[in-house]
Amino acid sequence: MSTANHRPIVYFVIAGLLCASLTLNVFTYSRIRRLQAPAQSNAHSYYSVTPADIALAATVPQLPLTVQPATLKFVFGEHYNITKPEEWASLIPPHDGRVRLGEGAEFGVGMYQDMRCLDVIRAAFVRMRDTGSTERDERAEACFGHIRQAIACTADITLEPAKVKCSKDEETGKVVCPVISAVATGNRVDHRCRDWNQVRAFVEENQKSWV
């Protein structure tokens, strides 16, 4: 049989393989979409905000409070160990630090929302570290975005001294201090802030009027 007679068969085989490949790809894509859909749906329903919520928040964008400046010296390792939830809980007033304004509309205060989010991430980290759990924590994932934007919003421009990290060369015994290894820890550095105690006092006084 000539080569020309084989061509229709070859074309038919190639077409069949292409169709099989396309069918498999479509099936795989559909299955992936089905597996991903519940997680995406749950995340949307859990964190969704309605237009009414946005409109309400826009009417009272901040606490009716003039917060005075304050200074905070960053100190690490003395308090708020990640394994002490009671210390982290003490940072936030009752009711997650919420306030009621106007006709009783309830609001979360940004600072305490950030603190709560940090505590959520802390708890998730400790749980994963101690149990080896790989279970997805949607609230902790959302909190990363919340804190990221809160840090950017604050735009702290305090300068933190960068110290050079030196190491001893085991062969020569010389101390080597490469410039590119400079690290800014921020420890014991004063930062210009707003008086967080004043904010807490306002929140606690506001909550006294709750019925």
Polypeptide structure, described:
Belongs to the ustYa family. The chain crosses the membrane at residues 6-27. One of its GO terms (molecular function) is oxidoreductase activity. Keywords: Membrane, Oxidoreductase, Transmembrane, Transmembrane helix. Pathway: Mycotoxin biosynthesis. The protein has 211 residues and is mainly α. 52% of the residues lie in helices and 9% in strands. The chain is built from six helices and six strands; from the N terminus they run H-H-E-H-E-E-H-H-E-E-E-H. The protein has helices spanning 3-47, 51-59, 85-89, 110-131, 138-154, 196-207, and strands at 69-73, 99-101, 105-107, 167-168, 175-176, 190-194. Strands 1-6 form a two-stranded antiparallel ribbon. A two-stranded antiparallel sheet has the order 2-3. A two-stranded antiparallel ribbon has the order 4-5. Strand 2 (99-101) and strand 3 (105-107) form a beta hairpin. Helix 4 (110-131) crosses helix 5 (138-154). 6% of the residues are buried. Mean pLDDT is 79; it is low at 17-46.
